[in-house]
# Entry
Amino acid sequence: MAEVPEPTHRRRSHAGTRDLERYAGLFAERTTVMRSSAMRDLMAITARPEVISLAGGLPDTSTFPPQSFAAQMTRIAQESAAKALQYGPTEGFEETKDCILEVMGAEGMLPDPDDIIVTTGGQQAIDLVCKTLIDPGDVVICEAPTYPGAIPTLCSYQADVVQVECDEDGMQVELLEQLLAELRAEGRRPKFIYSVPSFQNPAGVTMSLRRRQRLVELARSQEILVVEDNPYGLLRYGGEPMPPLYQLDGGDFVIYLGTFSKILSPGIRLGWAVAPPPVMEKIVLGKQAADLCTSTLTQYFVREYFAERRWQRYVDDLVEIYRSRRDTMVEALRTYFPAEATWTEPEGGLFIWATLPDYIDTSDLLAKALRADVAFVPGQAAYVDGRGSHSMRLNFSGVDEDEIREGVRRIGKVIAEQVELYGTLTGEHRVPEPATEPQPNVVPFRKAEEA
Amino acid sequence: MKVAVLKGGRSLERGVSLRSGARVEDALDRLGHEVLAIDVGSDLVKRLVAERPDVAFVAMHGVGGEDGTVQELLEILDIPFTGPSAAACARCMDKVQAKDAIDEAGLPTPHWFAFNQTAFHEFGAADALGRLEETLGFPLVVKPSRGGSSLGVKFARSPGEVPQALVSAFSYDDRILLERFVDGRELAVSILGDEPLPVVEAILLEGDRYDFEARYEIGRTRFACPAELSAEEERAVTEAALATYRALGCTGFARIDLILGEEGPWLLEANAIPGLTDTSLLPQAAEAAGLSFEQLVERILDLALTPQGVS
# Structure
């Protein structure tokens, strides 16, 4: 028998440049739109331990009771080990869907369980919807700014992404109507409209009821699909609950995406999509091709967790924590940001969107901020066309209140330096003074009516 | 041989440095050396003293690792290291110092003016902007004096765009320069020891030529190596690069970036520790010269252990 040679090296050798060129000829067309940039390298530095990162979108998992976690995992091991370690149905377990129905029920939705598919996080739900609906060059409409994590997904399916401006009441549906008319005149039918109507990522704004109704009317009358991404709906810290688009529409033209990430844990990678049966059929095929089924182990975990009947209390706890963190961030912004800056004051969710004077590029500001050991997401990440360079996304859920205060103070300081420098350069010697009086609800978006 | 690979650190180019470092570690490993990987932090001196490597391979980019700081420590600890000396690194890192040295050596570099923040804050330098804009003309380029890749480099196409470009550049360094824009082919000459390697040309495939980001995005810029140059052009370019390398006191290796305009080469800057990743230019140039990455790494080590004076 021939002897198997001993492996000689611990690690695989890196490819040479020539090798890379050889592979380049094999890459799919879609990889050319997946871009890496200097900004990605900058973001890598935000992981340094001394950096206060307001850049993440992390929920606080530190308050999840470890004894509850241990008890559930023990129960799974004792009672259902074999099943929890086995493949499961592509659509997900019926028991998981029961949990999903509870969560959706809490926001007034009651879908048919057969319309639901359990996915590997909400991100996979976005991917599967794109896979099902987008051919290269198809128009997809989303908000401006939009969820930064949706952009690479849309781009990898080579969608032609068109963004519709938001104001404090969410996507400006009036502008959307005009856009739809223009597209119709060009003979182009958008495949879907992607929206995060409640406590939007990144802007923190919530779509008004009037706009929700109008959006659903448009979708129904023009037979266009709306993809409603609602990870934060239950994280409301003030104001009145809004009906989800799915509820207003009844599920004919709205595809609904949900997740356990923000109400339980992002680490379990459990989300879902709800779609009309013909669409769901295709999504299931797509899911089968992608990963056969969502982790059965974490589905069991959710099942056990929901059986304790305290998931809503945990959400209530999170709401208390996040409300207080939001208040701290807003207070800190009022104290430390210069008067030229504006920001949203969200009624829920995880993010505040701040906008600076137009001579400040937030990607460059990030370099300066990182020297002061603080990080945020530059606004450009939320646009496909390079806009957003004067805005930033700030997260208030993932760090404690002292860090929020200190982080905002540091960012405020570097902004103030930029403002002063610009004043010196242009001869307008504006010495920035942090606003001492609490400002009224300052938002970076004007109402459409005023524009 | 025990080789310490210094990488990472706190600079904005930490990401690239970690990739450079990982690739060097692989190569050293395959060459049979004992590799000591160090993500540079506050325990650097302690670790170097405890481990006593025979040589340090500096795979750091940007402020801290490429500006002579780490090199000075290594000189004090008497550990041989790769790349240029501390003094040469400091000169290359600071574009203003580098341009001064290039200019003094009688080599062509685009006309420039340098400022630090104090000049604007305390001495009203803004009032001088109009005059120097007239001298430099538009478009002009605004750069942070110390900074790598394209970070903070902006074009201003009109006087109105200058203040904003300055604000961006000052985000990266307290000193900036305004430079005359010269049009031409973008070339990079890597020098190993005293030998120029084949010239690399960066060719922008799509997008705004004034968008510096585009130059570093995969798919938007193509690199041709060796660049298609006439024998005369090639001689002019490599001679200018070599003269710059010497003027800056570089040893070991460095990469000289320049523009080949109609009148000949214009020297822009020198990179004391060019990237060593899969897509970096120095390894590409070495490969075009028939050197594998391992051979390149071995040669760089040899140069570190048999230091030569500035020729």
About this structure: The CA atoms of residues 36 and 152 of chain A lie 11 Å apart. Chain A touches chain B at residues 9-11, 13-18, 20, 32-33, 35-38, 40-42, 44-45, 48, 359-361, 364-365, 367-368, 370, 418, 420-422, 424-427 (CB under 8 Å).
